[in-house]
Amino acid sequence: MKAETIILGNVITMDEFKPYAEAIAVADGKIIYVGSKEAAMKLQGDNTKVLDYGKNSIYPGFLEAHCHPGLAANMMFGRAKLSEGKTPEDYLAILKKYIQDNPDKPHYVGSGWADDLLYQLNAKQLDEICPDKPLINQSGSGHMMWVNTKAMEAFDINEDAVKQWGTECIHVDENGKPNGMLAEKPAIDLVKRVQPDLAQAKAELLGFQQYAFSNGYTGVYDAGYQLLTEQDPRAYKELDDEGKLKMYSFCGSFVNDNTDTPEEDMARIAAEAKEYNGQHVKVIGAKIFADGVVEGHTAWMLDDYVDKPGYKGVRRFDDHDKMVRVVKAAAAHDLNVHVHSIGDGATQAWIDAFAQAQTEVGNFDMRNALAHLQEVTPEDVKRIGEYNIMAVCGIMWTIKHPAGFPQEVAYVGEEKSLNAYPVKSIMDGGGVVASHSDFPVSPAFSAVQAFLMGVLKKLPSFPDEWIRNIDQAISRHEALKTLTSNVAYMWHAEDRMGSISLGKIANFVVLDRDFMHDDFALIEKSKVVATIVDGEEVYKASR
Questions:
Q1: Could you tell me which residues come within 8 angstroms of residue 492 by beta carbon, excluding any fewer than 6 positions away?
Q2: How many whole angstroms from its chain centre is CA 63?
């Protein structure tokens, strides 16, 4: 067999049997040779394309373990960008201009306000610039919503909603009426009420795909592919059928908090897999919220919040029997369960459920996942490895950033804050760690930054006092695994991707730096030269 494409460069394979090479040969979108340039060139035929990247480094395509493509795309292309501001006054100015520039919209959506301003924002501020149409604004974390009076009227945010959800999820004014600040499920559900249509969803997903390729990502996990953009399941399928979806997209389907019908929910997801799965899209299980976020006072903690004695956060999915039923039902359909779990209370409860369910069905290869893992007790760090639970970690969140760390300390205390994100301890206990950005919740979608944060616990350009938990730093090789082979393992796709090995899909990223040997300050400035999917260049940097 002659190669269709031969790729030359400094190849870092992530294959333990052949960690480095000079060349890769590709035919029919698969790798047919990895090794020396001399041997690879013997596979050259009359029509073989040679991509010579010189001294640049070639890696397996980066894999994102947890993000929200539909939301990210909508935020990039269809919303006011509040992340460009820092204060309430900044946000109001951005929104005012957005409204002036888009007078025909039936409603307005903004995204990216800072969660630490949770108690400084209210509907009255928005009413001054938008009194006649619904205006809703999602926080940077995605777990809070700042809305005007018209939005509350349109979407039933009233005193009945307060009774249903409580004042931690529907904040109230001095008279007990909703004040325009929402958290958790009522906030997230509100996004579904202002949906893009199918054509817009498809266009936005293609925009996100190109953005992912420009950052070296060839595969992503969509954590709740219909959670915020209900058109996305159909959009993925149609784009795949049309040959336009090139990004390998693994999807979790949202299951409601404390669902009364776990078995029916998993049967629904199995049916979705039959309907939507294709070459580049695959539904692999359920996405569930156990809790919220520390900065929103909604993470489920074992101990009281420091500033709110007697309060331990929001327990979104906390019915143990239903948790076990969900996991067992997933196992029956060869699916998995992927849980948003920030607080140590949430993590402990879900490990209990995974342990019981997996033991009862005798399946310890489900590769169920706990995502985020900000606070984890030492006992549960050990149990993650014992029960083969995937640890999907926000490695790039671990710094003591002055915009968020003091707030974290104020809410959960210094000891918990300093010991958050125990990545190396999980690895040392036998857990498999996959790195995620949670983009667009995190403003950065960068494997380069995730790699450096894992190894240095900061970026080289950041001050040393931002380092948190230096004893949780991992090696260069371990950091690359969290971005490649470990993620493929989580998806049960390690035979297809995650390393540059014979028979695997020809997905690569080319960077101008060698992550295994170059100085870290140089790596921070590295650029994506090209991204290759199925043996074809899908992104090439302009010179």
A1: 284, 367
A2: 10
Give the list of residues 6+ apart from residue 24 with CB closer than 8 angstroms, or none: 6, 7, 11, 31, 33, 34, 40, 58, 500, 506, 508
Please give the structure tokens belonging to residue 3: 């190669």
Q: In what order do the strands lie in the sheet with 178-183?
A: 80-81, 108-113, 135-139, 144-147, 178-183, 170-172
Supply 538's token pair. 């899908």
Helix 69-78 to helix 198-214 angle (10° resolution) is: 100
Residue 442 token pair? 């995190």
Contact yes or no for 58/480 (Cβ under 8 A): no
Q: Tell which residue, 164, 106, 97, has the closest CA to residue 134.
A: 106
Predicted confidence pLDDT, tens digits, the chain (543 residues): 899 999 999 999 999 999 999 999 999 999 999 999 999 999 999 999 999 999 999 999 999 999 999 888 877 777 888 888 989 999 999 999 999 999 988 888 888 898 888 889 999 999 999 999 999 898 877 788 999 999 999 888 999 999 998 998 999 999 999 999 998 888 878 777 777 789 989 999 999 999 999 999 999 999 999 876 789 999 999 999 999 999 999 999 999 999 999 999 999 999 999 999 999 999 999 999 999 999 889 999 999 999 999 999 999 999 999 999 999 999 999 999 999 999 999 999 999 999 999 999 999 999 999 999 999 999 999 999 999 999 999 998 889 989 889 999 999 999 999 999 999 999 999 999 999 999 988 878 999 999 999 999 999 999 999 999 999 999 999 999 999 999 999 999 999 999 999 999 999 999 999 999 999 999 999 999 999 999 999 999 987
Q: Which residue in 342, 473, 462, 471 sits closest to 402, CA to CA?
A: 462
Tokens of 37: 């340039």
User: Are 288 and 255 within 8 A, CB to CB?
Assistant: yes
Which strands make up the sheet holding 248-254, listed edge to edge? 62-67, 217-223, 248-254, 281-289, 336-341, 369-372, 390-393, 433-435
Helix (H, G, I), strand (E, B) or coil at 530: strand
User: Does pTM surpass 0.90?
Assistant: no
DSSP label at residue 38: H
Task: List b or e across 352-365, with b for residues whose CB sees 16 or more CB atoms inside 10 angstroms.
Answer: bbbbbbbeebebee
Pairing of strands 528-533, 508-511: antiparallel
Query: Which candidate, 208, 186, 185, 184, places its Cα nearest to that of 196?
Result: 208
Give the whole-angstrom CA distance, residue 374 versus residue 481.
Answer: 20
Closest to 302 in 3D by CA, of 367, 351, 368: 351
**Burial (CB count within 10 angstroms: exposed 0-12, middle 13-18, buried 19+), residue 46:** exposed
Length of the chain: 543
What gap in Å lies between CA 404 and CA 413, rounded to an integer? 13
Tokens standing for 117? 């301003």
Whether omega before 440 lies within 30 degrees of 0, making that bond cis, reads: yes
